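Figure 2 data, in text form.
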Amino acid sequence: MELTGKVVVITGAFGQLGRAMTQEALHQGAQCALLDVVTREAPAGAVAWQVDLSSLPDVARVMNEVAIRFGRIDALVNIAGGFRWQTVASSDALQEWQQQFAINLMTCVNASKAVLPHLQRAGTGRIVNIGAMGALKGANGMGPYAASKSGVMRFTESLADEVKLQGITVNAVLPSTIDTPQNRADMPDADHSRWVKGEDIAKTIAFLLSDAAGAITGALLPVTGKT
């Protein structure tokens, strides 16, 4: 098992992808700290923390608690985020832009900032972020989401370059449409068989967390299923 003994922090842990990631990390032998704004009962081998990811002090507090509870932190997976379709013309106060940057980019920045001292003290570590294939190009109504996820990708590259001599890798996976109940409800006529499964994304992330991926950093890795 590639993650045996590793302590993995997962944000957005109780969403669809977060649950798949938790299951895969536990299957591979990791101990998991599950961070979310609303928590549920954690499975065996994991502990849940309620946290406001928009607040750097609150995220730093939780990271310290995680390190005390497990003895260290080895990796962070930034899954927290969301999608909102919105055109510029139909957005009166551009609140959707602020919201998308807050939940997609700044949660990622805050969690990475808070975990970094723990990884730096250890002299090793992994950070994996979630970009999006849909953010590689703009489209009608995709402005807020695409811009925020593009920010995640540029942040990934920038942080990777910043810490590359410290034994810390920073990468991102870029899923296409994820096969979730919500996406199926929103797009009932789509060919769902071509969408990428959450468990396949989780397996890709798990590889990036493993020792085998130690030479990979600053990568933006497409995970597209059959699309």
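Caption note: The first strand starts at residue 7 and ends at 11.
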